[in-house]
Each structure stands twice: as structure tokens, then as C-alpha cells.
Amino acid sequence: MTSTVPNAVEHADAQQPPITMFGPDFPYAYDDFLAHPAGLGQIPATEHGTEVAVIGGGLSGIVAAYELMKMGLKPVVYEADQIGGRLRTVGFDGCDESLTAEMGAMRFPPSSTALQHYIDLVGLQTRSFPNPLAEATPSTVVDLKGESHYAETIADLPQVYRDVAEAWNRCLEEGADFSDMNRALRERDVPRIREIWSRLVEKLDNQTFYGFLCDSEAFKSFRHREIFGQVGFGTGGWDTDFPNSILEILRVVYTEADDHHRGICRRLPAAAAAPLGA
Q1: Run of H or E including 147
Q2: DSSP letters along 249-272, please?
Q3: pLDDT at 269
Q4: Which of 10, 77, 123, 269 is at a distance of 20 to 30 A from 208, taking alpha carbons?
């Protein structure tokens, strides 16, 4: 299998606030909003019990119905298939019951604190997802051009893979103010986030992911760019994203959306739907 070298960039210490999906485009504390004692809004008492149609019983639909119910309304969920949408675990006919496949959202990053809010609300536990070279992964095999390497940590891989990891760190730091943005997101410093992001949007708005790498002194080596594209970081290779805007990639990297994933299963939508009688 083709796997990964490192997670994106290791940057934080235990004394820093956690990274969350706070920006960079629209810095807003959705997690604080969801957790506010007053709830998401109020409905006049005269409207309590009003039926509201919710189209789709995926996780978004179930969460919307749950919040509508909390306001005193009567959500009616219309779902053509199964509650949970793509957040579903399925088995295989004639196979051992332990052999399953995830149909969609099988993992999420800890920075997704709005999702974590609902996971906590229904009392579910998560565990580390076995991404390549993650702590929860016993071993990873990187196979590139017929050359295979077995690894438990990045230290088990040849030096060139560690060189690529360092090149990616340098590229982000020198070309995208990574440490400054990371600190601003953790501290929820809205003016600083907007200052950094506005400058980067002006500078990189027409730049591709691959062009960003090519412009970096850290990635002057085509071999390093090739390894990075095919092996990648986080969940695997990123060469299919090379034509995309580097701004899209930075949105992922800044918020650690591809790092430290936790596993999630079909129990979440079912647990969230229970108060609705679904």
C-alpha cells in the first residue's frame, strides 16, 4: 500500500490552547456557540409544536432536527434510505461479521470541536484511527516504485523520507507563515488571522499546490516532490491535489484537519436520533 511519511507539521506543546476549525476564512467559535446555555435560538411559545420538514437523515439532518426539537418545534425527518447517510458501517454477505467497511465518514480530527460537541452530548467514546504511521497503527508499509519499506515510526524509513518531511515543514513556514497562523488560530486572535490570511490570499490566490512546492527552495529536488506527492502526509499521497489551489490545502493544514484522526461509527447518528424517536 502507499501510505504516508509524517503527519503534517508537529508544532504545539501542551501549554498551548488546542487547535480548532477557527478559520481562516471566517473565524468564528462555532463550538462555543453550540455549547452556550441559551442554545442556538428561541421560538415564540405560540409556535411551539410547529412541524418542520428536515430533508435527509444523515448526520447534518439529525443534528438539525435535534436542535429544532430543543427549540420547541416538531421536526419531521424524511430519509429515503437509512438514518446516518454515509456515516454507516456495512458488512459483506457470506463473510465473517467482523469484516466491515465504512461507507463514508469513518474518521475526524480533534480540531473538529463542533462534531465533538455532539459526540460528547450522546456519550460516545472515540479512539485513535489507524492512519499510516499514527500511534494507533502497529505498522505501515510504504511501497514506491517497487521498493517497499516496513515502518512503525518515521524513524524506520530511509533518510530521504525524513528529508521530504523536513522540506514540507520548511515550505509551510517560509511560504505560508505556518507558525504565526497556528498560534493565531489557537489563541483565536481574529485580527491576526485576518491579517495573515488576507496577505496570503493576495499572494497565492492563483497558485496551485504544485506551483507552491516548486517555488519553495525546500522542494527544489524533483525527487522530493515526487515522493511527497505519492506518499504524502497525514492520510497519504497528495499528488491528485497538485492542480488544486494551495489555499485549499492550507485550510486543511492550518486546522490540522488531516492529523491525529479519531474513529467514528454509525452509532453517532443513531444515538443522536434517539430523542427524536427515530
Answers
A1: strand 147-151
A2: HHHHHHTTTTSS-EE--THHHHHH
A3: 76
A4: 10
CATH number of the domain at 243, please.
Answer: 1.10.405.40
Residue 180 domain boundaries: 153-261
Q: Closest by alpha carbon to 231, among 172, 144, 119, 149?
A: 144
Residue 9 · residue 178 · CB < 8 Å? yes
Q: 30 lies in a domain?
A: no
The DSSP secondary-structure symbol of 58 reads B
Please identify every stretch of the chain with a pLDDT value under 50, giving residue numbers as ranges.
1-8, 11
Please tell me whether the peptide bond between 24 and the residue prior to it is cis, using omega within 30 degrees of 0. yes
Q: Is residue 104 a part of any domain in this protein?
A: no
d(CA 201, CA 141): 37
What is the reported pLDDT for 266?
Answer: 66
CA distances from 19 to 29, 219, 241 (A): 12, 27, 24
* Interatomic CA distance for residues 233 and 178, integer angstroms: 16
pLDDT at residue 6 in the model: 45
Tell me, yes or no, whether 189 lies in a domain: yes
Question: Whole-number mean pLDDT of the chain?
Answer: 88
Q: Is residue 223 part of a domain?
A: yes
Written as one letter, the residue type at 103 is M
Number of domains observed in the structure of the chain: 1
Residue type, 82: Q
CB atoms within 10 A of CB 222: 9
Q: Which residues contact 221 (CB under 8 A, 6 or more apart)?
A: 167
Joined together, the cell numbers standing for residue 4 give 504516508
